[in-house]
């Protein structure tokens, strides 16, 4: 969004003020439970991000519906996992769609925490904005 604003307004102050916040958000999304490390065929390690909310009970705003959905599951461990999946899906900001499910007609099959979403491309935005502001050392960290 910052890139779109910059491209429309060419407001350099906006970019300079936004970049530290984007770097902080990037650190959040690429650390802890959100971080997934993979090795490629050459043995190089790469970090990817995922949605993962530390929440294993119904969300207060949807408690009744989520308890009803979880009632289809047989034990408390499965229910806690479902609540984590539901909250992680909500964390994504996307609608609850078949995108996140193994079985598109069954909400209990959410697998959001196992999916590496394509929209987690913040690195490209940071590189663009860092280059715009002349912070090549910041841009180089993401290349």
Q: What does this protein look like?
A:
It is a single chain. This protein has 143 residues and is mainly α. It has helices at residues 2-9, 12-29, 63-70, 76-92, 122-133, 136-140, and strands at residues 35-39, 45-49. It has a two-stranded antiparallel sheet with strand order 1-2. The two termini are 21 Å apart. It contains 6 helices and 2 strands. 48% of the residues lie in helices and 7% in strands.
Essential attributes:
143 residues; mainly alpha; two-stranded antiparallel ribbon; 6 helices; 7% strand; elongated
Question: What is the structure about, briefly put?
Answer:
With 143 residues, the chain is mainly alpha-helical. Helices cover 48% and strands 7% of the residues. A hairpin with a 5-residue loop joins strand 1 and strand 2.
Number of helices: 6
State the shape. Answer: elongated
In the predicted model, the low-confidence regions spanning at least 5 consecutive residues are none
Report the sheet with the most strands, covering strand number, pairing sense and barrel closure.
Answer: 2 strands, antiparallel
Question: Count the strands?
Answer: 2
Strand order of the largest sheet: 1-2
Averaged pLDDT: 91
Oligomer: single chain
């Amino acid at each position: 969004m910052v890139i779109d604003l910059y491209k429309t307004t060419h407001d350099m102050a906006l970019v300079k003020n936004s970049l530290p916040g984007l770097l902080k958000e990037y650190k959040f999304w690429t650390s802890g439970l959100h971080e997934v490390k993979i090795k490629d065929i050459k043995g190089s390690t790469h970090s990817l991000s995922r949605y993962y909310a530390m929440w294993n009970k119904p969300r207060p705003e949807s408690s009744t519906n989520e308890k009803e959905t979880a009632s289809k599951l047989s034990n408390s461990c499965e229910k806690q996992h479902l609540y984590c999946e539901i909250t992680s899906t909500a964390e994504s900001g996307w609608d609850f769609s078949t995108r996140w499910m193994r079985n598109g007609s069954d909400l209990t099959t959410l697998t959001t925490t196992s999916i590496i979403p394509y929209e987690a491309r913040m690195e490209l935005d940071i590189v663009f904005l860092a280059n715009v502001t002349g912070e090549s050392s910041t841009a180089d960290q993401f290349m």
